Amino acid sequence: SRIYVGNLSWNCDSEELAKVLQQAGILAHVEEVVCDRETGRSRGFGYVTLTSIDFAQVAVQKLDGHIVQGRALKASFSQPYKKAGKEGPVEVAASHTKVFIGNLPWGVDDGSLEEFFRAHGKVVEAKIVYDRDTGRSRGFGFVTLSSPKEADEAVKSLDGADCDGRRLRVKLADTSP
Questions:
Q1: Mean pLDDT along residues 55-65
Q2: CATH at 124
Q3: Suppose 21 and one of 26, 53, 72, 132 were both cysteines; which one would form an S-S bond, judging by CB atoms 3.0 to 4.6 Å apart?
Q4: CA-CA distance, 20 to 25, in Å (whole number)?
């Protein structure tokens, strides 16, 4: 019954997230809005615990796409984590459906990234990573495909592929560089 809530504004803290949940009619315990260790600023996501799976499903449906401070929230069931030493928790590589894409042209957005990967499988989510201070693309992103087979095929087909004159670096997101 633990859910992930992402695409929060950078000034959203746990108290603000609790208010968002309350306005949406969701009674839940906000575990935390994850903050940068050095700056203390929100990293734009947090975790919420609900009393049952049924309530969590309703919360995901209500929150996913809900607009808060001009941003469409992303809500999903939380993924399991394991310890990874000093770096902190790392997502367990159970399904291998998430793909990292590096060396992206600066003009690529979520929609064009999704379109680029659509030929290689059903795209569940496509997300460009933006610099929180400037709002500009950081030149990399992630695509989640619907199956490990599709993710593997996308990596094989697109690693080294040309995208607007740039040679893409594509790998499973949960593998080392």
A1: 84
A2: 3.30.70.330
A3: 26
A4: 9
